[in-house]
Amino acid sequence: MYLFIHRKDLRTDDLRAFEALHRRGGADIHLLVIDPAIAAPDRLQTHSGRTFLRAVTRLAADYRQAGRTLHLLHGDPVEITEALLLAMPIAGLVQQADFTPYAVQRDTAVEAICKKHDRGYKTYDDAPLIDLADFGQFARRTEPYKVFTPFYKMWSGYMRQCYAPSGSIRIDDLATVDELESEIETRFRLPAWIDELLVDAAAQEADEPSPQEQLTDFIEGPIADYSRHRDDFAVDAGSGLARWINHGALSPRRIYEAVAELEEAHSWIRQLAWRDFYLMQARQNPDFFTYERQFDFRELSEHHYEAWIHAQTGIPIIDAAMTQLRETGELPNRLRMVTAMFLTKNLRCPFTKGEQYFRRMLADYDHTLNRGGWLWSSSLGYDAAPYFRIMNPVTQSMTHNPSGSYIRKWLPELAHLPDKIIHQPRPEAIVDLKQTRAHAIEVYGRMLRGYEQESASPGTDEPV
Ligand SMILES: Cc1cc2nc3c(=O)[nH]c(=O)nc-3n(C[C@H](O)[C@H](O)[C@H](O)COP(=O)(O)OP(=O)(O)OC[C@H]3O[C@@H](n4cnc5c(N)ncnc54)[C@H](O)[C@@H]3O)c2cc1C
């Protein structure tokens, strides 16, 4: 009997771990741990926390429908693992690999517990579309790519020649253990308040199309106009699938296979390559999660942070975007870049503040992709925006939504303004865009001086 723990793979098909369990045969324990360290009460009430709960209820329903058992426990994954290993005849633990700092620390401890009790421990890196070790060999390099365009070229070649397709084993093909040792059930039982949140989430999901249906709808319709409309934030031509991809509710491989042959999917597939580019950095760029420790942020300040989160900057497109984010948990990619660059450059606030705020707000929050986006905007990390190229939010607004319909929607108090005026800074704007831009270039220039910025083609590789 093996212990399989779901993490960012909340689905019941196309998991490398399922294939391994199937090869071994027998009934296994399938478990999802709600870990208070990352799913604290306040977190589960945010947009990103609610998405997680929605994905959990879908997963539980899929198990039920297949007549299989998914155990849900609440507590420290290390303690839960040890308790299970001591109480049940488990030969080893199988799970998806995860590379965020918390995950690495947690999994190191889990692995040590398995070793201590002389049980097996095996992880599968199912998140990227490419197998990163294999990709390195294919590309004949030991160093990770630091610029997106050559990475993407190689990525495309790899996907054509070496792509490992999705697996056929579904939960129906596996046997699950129905009961855990009763002391464990009691000790790690979900608290009532989580049960209630799950009931609410299930009720919400009942009215929503499934992730798979959303994918099909996207492929049958909007994908054809994706490249034309992606930056048109009033339309937001994105698939809206990130939230499911990030929790693993949709398999990236199945998504890729559904669109790989479609001519019109070309630019959308490129976005999946951006995702792999950041996943690669999380695994292979030792600085990815620690850039903030390498720079002297003393010239930066949190002075305007509150105005930014409360949509009170007086720059209409920024305030409209921050309103949409707070109310819905949604924000089109271009506006993520514009608001992030405004915070880090015009307001000269450390990127980590914005990163933390997005963590709570984004319905599709993902630690790695969020960090990638914030590093890009603050000119840190591989292939980031050059520090001297600062997006002007007014120009961005006029270019991508000339009619101002987006601002009118989210800031109805400005709806009466004519098209030409609506984009302009309000009299109460907290900063002057021109002055703060010039100042940011000086400050970031000083801050980054001496730091090797390895972007070979500055400014060409926007994640668009
Ligand atoms: C500051 C900032 C923060 C961000 N935080 C997150 C985050 O927490 N979670 C998240 O999923 N994405 C994040 N992104 C990337 C991107 O904005 C979202 O993936 C995208 O807007 C999600 O919309 P969608 O589901 O319609 O994706 P689509 O536009 O339909 O794209 C399909 C998929 O491609 C990938 N993708 C798309 N754009 C990017 C990108 N720029 N970088 C990497 N992968 C991409 C995603 O997996 C996405 O689901 C962030 C970007 C920035 C600039």
Describe this structure in words.
With 464 residues, the chain is α/β, with parallel strands linked by helices. It has three domains: 126 residues, Rossmann fold (3-Layer(aba) Sandwich); 115 residues, Serine Threonine Protein Phosphatase 5, Tetratricopeptide repeat; 155 residues, DNA Cyclobutane Dipyrimidine Photolyase, subunit A, domain 3, CATH 1.10.579.10. 51% of the residues lie in helices and 6% in strands. It contains 23 helices and six strands. Strands 1, 2, 3, 4, 5 and 6 form a six-stranded parallel beta sheet that branches.
Short description:
51% of the residues lie in helices and 6% in strands. It is of the alpha/beta class. Strands 1, 2, 3, 4, 5 and 6 form a 6-stranded parallel sheet that branches.
**Could you report the average pLDDT, rounded to the nearest whole number?**
94
**Which second-level CATH architecture of the largest domain applies?**
Orthogonal Bundle
For this structure, the CATH topology of the largest domain is: DNA Cyclobutane Dipyrimidine Photolyase, subunit A, domain 3
Contiguous runs where pLDDT drops below 50 for at least 5 residues: 453-460
State the shape: globular
Query: Count of helices?
Result: 23
Oligomer: single chain
